Amino acid sequence: MAEKNNKIARQREFEEVALKHTDALLRTALRMTKNESDADDLVQETMLKAYRFFDRFERGSNIKAWLFKIMTNIFINDYRRKSRKPTGVSYDDIDDNFLYHQLEGSQGKVTDPEESLFTKLLDTDVRAAIDELPEDFRIVVVLAFLEQFSYEEIAEIANIQLGTVKSRLHRARKLLQKSLWQHAVARGFSVEESK
Amino acid sequence: MNCREALENLYAYLDGQLDDDTVERIQGHLEVCDHCFEAYEFERLLQDFVVRKGQVIVRTEPLKSKVMDKIRELDQEDEGASGFFFVVRPYLAAAAAIVITLVGLYFYLGDSSSTLYASFVDCHLKCNDLIQAEQQQPVSPAQIDSCLSHIAVFPARFMKGDEHRIPTFGEVNQYGGEDAAHFVFSYHGSLISVFIVDQNKIDPSGSMDQTTDDRHTYFHSQEEDFNIVMWKCNCAWCVAISCAETGKIIEFASAY
């Protein structure tokens, strides 16, 4: 009987502290798997695993990071294995601040995004630009930008060195900017027009 | 601070990764340098834009209740079940279940060690790469050995220092529902399956024999059909199992 009460208490605690991160997990899972049904499965698997190991979670420490670590781990080990392709993306020929330099030549304020490039880009363009990133970079971008984790937290979650977080994020930004540029151009944006 | 320094720190600044002193120096520079100010503003707005547009609104209510239903279901099943079982190859299922139940009794959930967990993931990734590479060319035993050596020191008495010890296979697997690194060694021509389990506390029962050498204490026992050896290294428990009669590996299916 006591055991049963324990279980109920455990369920309640889990519901209270862990379940509220489902939204954040699902948002990230969507960008990781690029597929709604896989994302649902991934989050569900993450939650069940987290519950199974809930006794090991150090109370009072960062549960969001802990959940994301579990999810990232499952994703890398399981989902990635299914669909791992060589990336072969070249990013070294992209300048830092690529977009800014593209626009720098134009007249007017480039710092007014609503008036320039950004009006051309749709939500779907931005998501596509993120989705097109090679997976290792995508994970870091999603954790840093969309979930606002610190570099240290990302290193812990994705199990990579701090330096790797920085370099991946840096390269990912270059790729992201180039991709956004291409999407904007495809929608008819040109520097000439904004001049 | 000059422009080069300011631009180098741009992203770290946006990500809030700089110390107060550097932040202050950057802000001082931006006040006097229009060019850098504009570059910073552009990147900041761009990042805000990406974050805003990249966010999707998700509906998670059905998912949440599904998760809680599953959890209640699992807890209920636990109550009804007499122990835990592995998914095993059908032809080994009955035999393996005996071993699993025996060894499984020694396991219970302890505190997690994040460092150790990290090394499992690391090992997993390396082994994954090996397995990927294997599709093109055979993996050499030396490769597996180097992939394993940072995590496991194999007992001198049973494995290490024997020229016949040849690793043949490695992957991350599950053992007793726990994350485990699973390795297979060829030992005197027999395959031995080794699991390395992230457990702080396993209490091998008194029914196992003990042997101690200068490195470790080994708990071993010969069951009717299986030989089991357990030893602790680098805070992890290693469990090796081989079939007593044929020396053949007992292969567990991954729980993934």
Question: Key features?
Answer:
heterodimer, A: 195 residues, mainly alpha, B: 256 residues, alpha+beta, seven-stranded antiparallel beta sheet, 8 helices, elongated, disordered C terminus
Outline the structure in words:
- The complex is a heterodimer of chains A (about 200) and B (about 260).
- Chain A is mainly alpha-helical and about 200 residues long.
- Helices cover about 70% and strands about 0% of the residues of chain A.
- Chain A has helices spanning about 1-15, 20-35, 35-50, 65-80, 100-105, 115-120, 125-130, 135-145, 150-160, 160-185, 190-195.
- In chain A, helix 7 packs across helix 10 (about 160-185).
- Chain A starts with a helix and ends with a helix.
- Chain B has about 260 residues and is an alpha+beta fold.
- Chain B contains 8 helices and 7 strands, in the order ααααααααβββββββ.
- A 7-stranded antiparallel β-sheet of chain B has the order 1-2-3-7-6-5-4, covered by helices on one side.
- Chain B is elongated and about 80 Å long.
- The interface between A and B is large, with 63 and 50 residues.
Summarize the structure.
The complex is a heterodimer of chains A (195) and B (256). Helix content of chain A is 69%, strand content 0%.
Low-confidence stretches of chain A: 84-88
- Give helix and strand order of chain A, one letter per element, not per position: HHHHHHHHHHH
Strand content of chain B: 15-25%
Note the gap between the termini of chain B: 53 Å
Structural class of chain A: mainly alpha
Number of strands of chain A: 0
List segments of chain B where confidence is low: pLDDT < 50 over at least 5 consecutive residues: 81-116, 249-256
| Count of runs of 4 or more consecutive helical residues of chain A | 11
What is the element string of chain B, with H for helices and E for strands?
HHHHHHHHEEEEEEE
Round the mean pLDDT of chain B to the nearest integer and report it.
65
Shape of chain A: elongated
Average pLDDT rating of chain A: 81
